[in-house]
Amino acid sequence: MVSTTQRTRIIKAGAIAFWLAVWEIASLLIGEELFLPSPISVLEALAASAVDLSFWSAVLFTLERIILGFIISLSSAVILAFLSYRWRILGILLEPIVKVVRATPVASIVILILVWVRSRNLSVVISFMMVFPVVYQNVLKGLGDTDRNLIEMADAYRIRTLKRIRYIYLPYLVPYLESAISISLGLAWKSGIAAEVIGLPDGSIGERVYEAKIYLSMPDLFASTVTVIILAFVFERVFLYLSRIILRRISR
User: Fold this and answer.
1) Residue 89 predicted with pLDDT over 90
2) Which residue, 92, 146, 201, 225, could crosslink 119 as a Cys pair with Cβ 3.0–4.6 Å?
C-alpha cells in the first residue's frame, strides 16, 4: 500500500520527469545548442564543473557573501522592528526608506551601490537591502498583532523586557518570522546573483554566468543557473529547518 507521502513524492518526481522530457523535445525541435541546449549537454557541463576547483571557489565566494548579507539583514531588521514598535518616531523615520528600497528595481540599486562599494562586497550589500524590508515589515506586523491583554498584564506585573520578548512576543512572532525568512531567502539569492552579474566580482558565480553568456556557451550558462537553483534550495531548507528549531525552543 502506497502512503500519502510516497504518492506525493512519486507525483513530484513525475512532474520533474515531465518537464525534463519537454525540455529535451524542445531542444531536439530547435536543433541548435546555441539557443537551447539539451538536458544531457547541461548535465555534462555540470559534471565538468564539478571537477573544476575554480568552480567550487566561485560557489564558496558567492555562498558566503549572500549568507553574510542575509544574516546581517535578518538580525538588524528584527532589532529595528522591535525598536520601531517601542518608539513610534523611529518607525515613522524608517517607513519611507523601507518602502523605497522595496519598490526600487534591483538593477538600479546595484548600479547605485557600485559607486560606493567594491564589487567583491556588492552581493553582501544587495542581499542585505532586499531582505531587510521583508523581515522588518513582517516582524513589525507580528508585534502589532500581539495580544494587548498580555501586554497590559506584563505592565501590571512589571515583567522585564527580555521575559516579555521570550514569553509574550516570540510566540506571536514565530509564524511571521518563518514566513519572512522563507520569502527573503529566495530574494537574497536572486538579488545577490543579479548583483554579481552586473558588478562582475572576480571569482564569483555571477562572473561565470556572464562569461558563459559572452562566449555563447549555453550549456555552461544553464549549468551555472542550475547550480544557483540547487544552492538556493538546499540553503533555504537547511536555514528554515534550523530557524524553526531555534525559534520554537526560545519561545517555549
Assistant:
1) yes
2) 201
